[in-house]
Design brief:
It comes from Streptacidiphilus pinicola. This protein has about 210 residues and is of the alpha/beta class. The protein is built from 5 helices and 15 strands. The protein is about 25% helix and about 40% strand. α1 (about 15-25) packs antiparallel against α2 (about 55-70). The longest helix has 13 residues, at about 55-70. It is globular, with a radius of gyration of 16 Å.
Length: about 210
């Protein structure tokens, strides 16, 4: 079954981005790679990354550390029927959501991240779902033409599909955008580009970048 080993962000200054992600989230375990790029991009890049954590205190802690490291707060920490969440935009432009389904804290805050979820904003969820199934991903959950979550088992990064405008609204930004996604997905399914222009590459290529 095809799965994601890591994601690579194309950034203007890899050293600065590395410092930000270490200070903000402690992401230094290979799930996130960075490489230099000046590819033109503007507005919403069509994706978000989510950090799923264990309790509200962890959401608050990571949100605070991200803002202290230079992120822009798009949505402050708030409670919803699903749990707690917050959204920030990193200095390199990537949008990150920090979330938990827990309603109460079970202990002191930690910086442990249970999972990373890549949500792609797509033009046609059904068409993209078919494309990914044909490329070896198995559907975990599907909600018609609104949202699809692929089975991940123990994969380092999980994948979901969301309608582009709905994803932008959830992130708190305008849906308009153009140019490079500034994202590459490293997985086990070889090299290909999906219907919305998101490129996949072999995991070994991303590790060497």
């Amino acid at each position: 079954m095809t799965s994601i080993a890591s994601i690579t962000l194309d950034v203007a200054d890899p050293s600065a981005a590395e410092r930000f992600y270490a200070d903000a989230f402690g992401l230094d375990d290979g799930r996130l790679n960075l490489r230099a790029s000046e590819a033109p991009t503007s507005g919403f890049r069509g994706f978000t990354l989510s950090l799923v954590v264990g309790q509200p205190a962890d959401v608050r802690g990571l949100f605070d550390s991200a803002v202290a490291a230079g992120a822009t707060a798009l949505k402050p920490v708030s409670k919803s029927m699903w749990g707690y969440g917050a959204t920030v935009q990193a200095p390199d432009g990537t949008i990150w959501k920090i979330a938990t389904s827990a309603k109460k804290d079970a202990g002191p805050a930690t910086r442990h991240i249970d999972s990373i979820v890549l949500l792609l904003g797509v033009a046609d969820v059904a068409a993209s779902k078919r494309f990914y199934v044909e490329h070896g991903l198995a559907v975990g959950k599907s909600f018609g033409r609104m949202y699809v979550e692929f089975a991940a088992d123990a994969a380092p990064v999980k994948l979901g599909l969301y309608r582009r405008r709905a994803l932008a609204k959830d992130a708190g930004v305008a849906a308009d955008g153009s140019g490079s996604h500034r994202l590459a997905i490293a997985g086990t399914g070889g090299s290909f580009t999906d219907p919305d222009g998101f490129p996949w590459e072999p995991a070994t290529a991303a590790a060497a970048a």
